[in-house]
Structures are given as C-alpha cells and as structure tokens.
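Hi,

Apologies if this is the wrong queue. I'm a grad student, and the batch job for Ribonuclease R from Sphingomonas glacialis produced an output file that my downstream script rejects. I'm not sure whether the problem is my script or the file. Here is the sequence I used:
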Amino acid sequence: MKTLVDSNAVLAAGLPLIRTQFGVPETFPPQVLAAAEEAAKRVPSAHVDRTAMPFVTLDPASSTDLDQAFAIERSGADLLLHYAIADVAWFVDDGGVIDAEAWKRGTTLYLPAGKAGLYPPVLAEGAASLLPSGPRPAVVFTVRVAPDGTPTLDGAERAIIRSRAKLAYDSVTEANLPPDFAELANRIVAAEDARGASRVDPPQQDVIADGKGGYRLAFEPRLVSEDRNAALSLATNLAVAALLQAHHTGLFRVMAGPDDRAVQRLRNVALGLGLEWPAALTLPQFVATLSAAEPAQAAFMIAERRSGGGATYTPYRDGVVPWHAAMAATYAHATAPLRRLADRYVVRAALAIANGQPVPEVVTQAFETLPPVMARADAIGGRIDRAVIDLAETAVLQGREGEIFSAVIVDADAHGARIQLCDLAVLTSVKTEGKPGETISVRLVAADTTARTLNFERVS
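Support response: The file is valid. Your script probably expects a header line. Output copied below for reference.
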C-alpha cells in the first residue's frame, strides 16, 4: 500500500510539500464526520450469525483499517475459503454526505508519514473494520479452490463475524493460522504459474542510515506470510470477476502487457542492475525467477511494475472479455472496500447475483461512472508515490555531489537519455546522446530535495 516507508523520518521536512502539492486532505468536512459518527451506531439487521466461524485477519502490524478476515476448511479435495469483506455499504447511504465525499476521494492515499482515508476513521478504523474487538458486519464470500488452484464462488452472504485474532505479517506463526492456509496459497500460485501470469508484488523501500553519516535506500523483503495472504485476496477477486462476467455485469480491472519497446527498456534496466536475463526467456518467465529478497532483483520488480501503461477500470461490455495481462485472467477488485471506492459496488453486485437477486440500479449506474473517478484517484496516488521516491532519492544522494556513477542507458530520444544507475536502485535522466544498453559514466551535479530533482552530467 506504500511504495516507501521512512522509519528514520529522513523525509519529514519534504512530505508536507507533497501533501500540499497534491491536495492530500488532512481530515474530513465536519458534516461528513458527524454523519459517520451516526452511521457507526447502526445495528446490523440483514446479517446471519457467523460468529462461531474461526475468522482471523492478517495485515501489517500497524494496520487498523481491516478489510478482510478469513477462515478455511476442507471439502473433499477442494478447499473452501470463507473470505469476509468489510460491509461498508451497510454504513454508507447512496447519495449521502459520506458517499459524496468518498466519490471525491476515490481511494485512500498513503504517504510515509500517514494517510488520507477514503472514509472517516470512526468507520474505516472502527465500526466497519474487521477488528477483533467485537462482532462486525461483513459480506462473506465462500470461494471453492480446486486442487489445480481454480477458484469459483460458491456463495455470498451478509453475516456478523467475530475475528479471533489480529495477526501481523512479521510475527504470525503457522500455529496462529488455519491448517490449510499455506496449501491454499500454494494452489493459487501454482494456477498463476500455469496460466503464465506475471503479477509481481515488489517490496517496499526504506530510508536507512548507511553507517557513514548519510542514508541509503534499502528494500524491505516481502514476507512469506504477506505473499500467502495476497493469494487469498487474488482467489476471491478472480472468483468474483468470473461470476460478474458470466452474468453480463460488473466493473473489471484491465491492463495491457508491456509492448516490445517497454520490454527492451526492461532488458536494459536488467543490464544496469547486473541481472542476467537470457534471451530465450519471456518477461513473465524472467520475473518468475526473481526474488524480492535480492536488492537488484527487487529494483527490477519495481521497474517492471512501472513499465506498462498501468491498470484501468472498465465496465462489462457485451462481446468483450476484460483482460488483465499481469494476472493472465479476467479480474476485478472486490476485497478492499475500506480503501477503494469501486470495491463497494463490486461487492454489492456479487452479493446480489450470488443470492439470485437483480443487481441494484445504483450499482449498475456506478459501473459506468466509476472508471474516470478511479483513474483520477489512481493517477494522484501514482504521482504521490513517484514524488515520495524522488524525494527519497534526492535525500540519499545529497552530499554526494561530484561523485561519478556507472549507469546504463535504458531509453533515449531527442531530449536525452533515461538511465539506470548500476549501484543504486535509481532510474533518472541525463542530457546526452547514446544507444539503449550502452554503459556510461555520469557525475552527480546536484541533488535538490526541495524540487525533488537530480542533475547528472555525462563524463564518459
């Protein structure tokens, strides 16, 4: 959810400028806060009692806006994933002030020093969050996962659940988790490999002391528990997407794969990072060999994530199969309604269809109007991520002016060259001519943390 963390508060001085530049709100309007306080008092009345089911949550230790809880059981050779999603729609009225504010925001925005939530904390971190402090309303999707990893939606219901534990990625043990947690995740990953998916979840970066009085960017390796947890969400999103597509409705996440030029740029990035990419391997095959625990490989994962045009949202259209190239599947977002506006409507549609009911008209209309709203929100989030990384790169390189770095030209045009520094996970620009794949030397002229810019000049 964050591209970069700042455990040493190195970026503290520059982050307020980013918040101001991108209009990141500090709080909510008074009328929205007041409405949220009232909504939080609502007593669920359309939900069955599932408090006896052993749900748990698994998230970063500091997280309090918990969208998902899960329980797993066997059904012959299949595994049943009971995936509880926060029932945000129970608290948010269509057309009300909370709803209107959420449409303005689109998503929760994350910065190293905090976030700007989609919904007020009394809901997102209280009444609607699947915390273990008491029973919570949820939409429970039952996803049947076959031995080959194929997920299908067996049912969906509004339910009251009670999480048994708030588990954290960095401290969870096998004993805390359902017995088949690892097996279910392995099935999903095997299915990804079988269909040629190239989904990557690059690790976060952190600004840490370098032991020489300065700082450096380091990668925080993804934990096994984090990757396995992501597989549960993926299975649910795939199952929901298949259900919606089969019933000729929905909002889907689509993404084209990188074109030939983008793949060549990535090959140059790999060269700059010292990674051997055999010519016979496709991009998905190469990505499958990488480990986020290795800094150079993690840096490539981040470059690969940014190589395409990005994912977008599209409503159902007759005769069109919505496709997400990285997932190698039809895909929808349904599992994070506390943090993404679109998920609230996808959940409502899937819940209706699974129970033989018509999709509410307000949901069908939302599928048509959500794409530009989500595109704007995603674009702002992406620009914030880029600004934070630019700030971090200038911060760690400040004081190294005059130093010479080896780099590889990733791409070039009439305006100059895009280069990958060979010893740092820094992708930047320099005014020079050259051919992609060429190794050059550049001198750092200036690192401006206020403007968040690096100025390099070519020396050879």
